[in-house]
């Protein structure tokens, strides 16, 4: 085809890979709205999230680029951001909790000490609680008595609990059999007894206070089970723990059954190495909600249990997102998630709702004359079904081209291929969701068709064969050369001997 003919060719829509219906066990019926709260070099790590009675989000996090602890709170339609502390070093977890007045308090680490920051309504007050393990792992909770407790790893790695009594910190050892307590998570029951989950000696472990002292138990004896543990109590006071089974790459959930006096184990997700960092909460109906990072997809994911089924969905998939995730629920049970976006060095925050929502995804396999578009119907909201299609055009054009709609009664990932595109051209596109009552549009994204065709995939098998033959020839050449060298050396030695014999002969 000539350049002129190519320039005026009409792009063709191929419904190759047309639709991929989300599996039935994944509802995806929440609409998610991710935003950037704060941004900077290595900013937004080790987040911790709390929601107050007015539904406002409070987030503690690290600004590692500036070696500081930061705090963000929703203020009207925006966010107010404070720098809480600038210690000489900053490492490890942050843990935020709200007191009865809704004021924030944060536990964090400076590389060798456990520190505590409290806000009195005007300014932050910072104190050093105790020595701490350099990695910095701990968890903060407020009791009904109005005083904070912090579970943490001491400088030796021993698990400890510190309690403020109104005038001083009372520190005590929980157990000494664990070499180093990691991924420490604390919750309190209605009479302020502490329940702690943690990873120690290669297992998920659990400690709770009793009248005679601390009761200790290995919850999951499998090797390397217990990473990123998070604990909560149901309305009966029975513990539930979300964690990663690191050896098998699974996100797991374990619950204590007080009737059978046993632990019940469940696999929440096993695809793509899920559970790298976990946020966890129970709602008023004791339904578990879990946020987590999935390593293979580099996405932030969310799971909740409905009846006997774990329903999972993607919250954010743009870039590498979902490290240092923390989850909290508002009074109506809707989840909110804070997390780190390493692609943009940003603290991000995602809120959920029941709304009709679509999302445009990045184009795939872009070539000189074709591209695959992607989009998702995230949530139907109040509607039983919807039509999903794409709109596309060359950048700068005033009119959109619309593809044929696909009807769906549930979440949908749609793909389509545009062909006969013009090289060296920028195109823009968006996904569209339609019902008789409402039309929603995804974000407008762009892709560029290159001038030079993308080279085909190298013939890896042929290359491997050539390399093997070349290596074999090199070895054979070396061996033949070695034999020839030895033969030449033998003949030279023989000539020297013959010459010597002639000289010595009378």
> N- to C-terminal separation?
93 Å
* Shape summary: globular
In DSSP terms (H or I, runs of 4 or more residues), the helix count works out at 2
* Secondary structure: number of strands: 39
List the quaternary state of the chains. Answer: single chain
Q: Which band does the percent of strand residues land in? A: over 45%
Architecture overview:
The protein is mainly β and 506 residues long. The protein has three domains: 109 residues, Immunoglobulin-like; 321 residues, Fucose-specific lectin (Neuraminidase); 47 residues. 10% of the residues lie in helices and 55% in strands. The chain contains two helices and 39 strands. The strands form nine sheets. Strands 33, 34, 35, 37, 38 and 39 form a six-stranded antiparallel beta sheet that branches. Strands 1, 2, 31, 32 and 36 form a five-stranded antiparallel beta sheet that branches. Strands 3-30-29-28 form a four-stranded antiparallel beta sheet, with no helix packed on it. The termini are far apart. The N terminus and C terminus are likely disordered.
Describe, in short, the structure shown:
The chain has two helices and 39 strands. By secondary structure, the protein is mainly beta.
From the structure above, extract its key features.
10% helix, 39 strands, 3 domains, single chain, six-stranded antiparallel beta sheet, disordered C terminus, mainly beta, 2 helices, disordered N terminus, 506 residues, five-stranded antiparallel beta sheet, globular, Neuraminidase, Immunoglobulin-like
Note the topology:
Elements: H1 3-7, E1 12-14, E2 19-21, E3 31-39, E4 43-51, E5 57-63, E6 68-75, E7 78-85, E8 91-98, E9 104-109, E10 113-119, E11 124-131, E12 138-142, E13 148-153, E14 159-164, E15 169-175, E16 182-188, E17 194-200, E18 203-210, E19 213-220, E20 225-233, E21 239-245, E22 250-257, E23 262-269, E24 274-282, E25 288-294, E26 299-306, E27 309-316, E28 321-329, E29 335-341, E30 346-353, E31 356-364, E32 371-380, E33 386-394, E34 401-402, E35 406-408, E36 412-419, E37 425-434, E38 439-441, E39 445-449, H2 460-504
Antiparallel strand pairs: 1-36, 2-36, 3-30, 4-5, 5-6, 6-7, 8-9, 9-10, 10-11, 12-13, 13-14, 14-15, 16-17, 17-18, 18-19, 20-21, 21-22, 22-23, 24-25, 25-26, 26-27, 28-29, 29-30, 31-32, 32-36, 33-34, 33-35, 33-37, 37-38, 37-39
């Amino acid at each position: 085809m000539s350049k002129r003919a190519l320039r005026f060719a009409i792009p063709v829509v191929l419904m190759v890979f047309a639709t991929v219906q989300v599996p039935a066990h994944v509802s995806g019926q929440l609409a998610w709205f991710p935003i950037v709260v704060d941004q900077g070099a290595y900013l937004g790590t080790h987040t911790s999230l709390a929601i107050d009675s007015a539904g406002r989000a409070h987030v503690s996090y690290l600004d590692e680029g500036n070696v500081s602890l930061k705090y963000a709170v929703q203020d009207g339609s925006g966010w107010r951001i404070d720098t809480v502390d600038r210690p000489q070093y900053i490492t490890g977890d942050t843990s935020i909790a709200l007191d009865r007045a809704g004021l924030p308090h944060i536990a964090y680490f400076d590389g060798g000490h456990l520190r505590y920051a409290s806000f009195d309504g005007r300014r932050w007050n910072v104190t050093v609680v105790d020595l701490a393990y350099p990695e910095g792992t701990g968890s903060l909770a407020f009791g009904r008595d109005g005083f904070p407790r912090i579970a943490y790893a001491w400088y030796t790695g021993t698990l400890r609990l510190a309690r403020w009594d109104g005038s001083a910190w009372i520190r005590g050892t929980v157990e000494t059999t664990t070499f180093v307590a990691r991924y420490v998570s604390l919750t309190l029951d209605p009479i302020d007894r502490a329940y702690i989950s943690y990873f120690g000696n290669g297992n998920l472990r659990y400690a709770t206070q009793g009248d005679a002292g601390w009761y200790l138990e290995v919850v999951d004896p499998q090797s390397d089970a217990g990473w990123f543990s998070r604990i909560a109590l149901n309305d009966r006071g029975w513990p539930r723990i979300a964690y990663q089974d690191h050896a098998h790459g699974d996100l797991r959930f374990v619950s204590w059954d007080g009737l059978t006096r046993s632990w019940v184990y469940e696999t929440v997700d096993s695809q793509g190495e899920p559970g790298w960092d976990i946020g966890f909460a129970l709602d008023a109906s004791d339904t578990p909600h879990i946020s987590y990072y999935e390593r293979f997809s580099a996405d932030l994911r969310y799971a909740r249990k409905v009846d006997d089924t774990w329903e999972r969905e993607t919250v954010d998939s743009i870039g590498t997102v979902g490290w240092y995730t923390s989850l909290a629920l508002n009074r109506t049970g809707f989840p909110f998630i804070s997390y780190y976006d390493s692609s943009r060095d940003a603290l991000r925050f995602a809120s959920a709702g029941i709304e009709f929502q679509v999302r445009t995804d990045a184009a795939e396999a872009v070539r000189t004359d074709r591209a695959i578009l992607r989009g998702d119907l995230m949530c139907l909201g109040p509607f039983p079904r919807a039509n999903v299609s794409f709109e596309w055009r060359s950048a700068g054009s005033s009119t959109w081209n619309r593809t044929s709609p696909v009807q769906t009664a549930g979440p949908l990932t749609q793909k389509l291929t545009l062909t006969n595109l013009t090289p060296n051209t920028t195109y823009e596109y968006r996904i569209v969701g339609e019902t008789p009552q409402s039309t929603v549009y995804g974000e407008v994204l762009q892709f560029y068709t290159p001038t030079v065709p993308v080279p085909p995939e190298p013939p890896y098998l042929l290359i491997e064969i050539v390399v093997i033959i070349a290596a074999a020839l090199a070895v054979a050449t070396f061996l033949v050369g070695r034999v020839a060298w030895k033969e030449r050396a033998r003949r030279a030695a023989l000539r020297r001997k013959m010459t010597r014999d002639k000289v010595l002969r009378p």
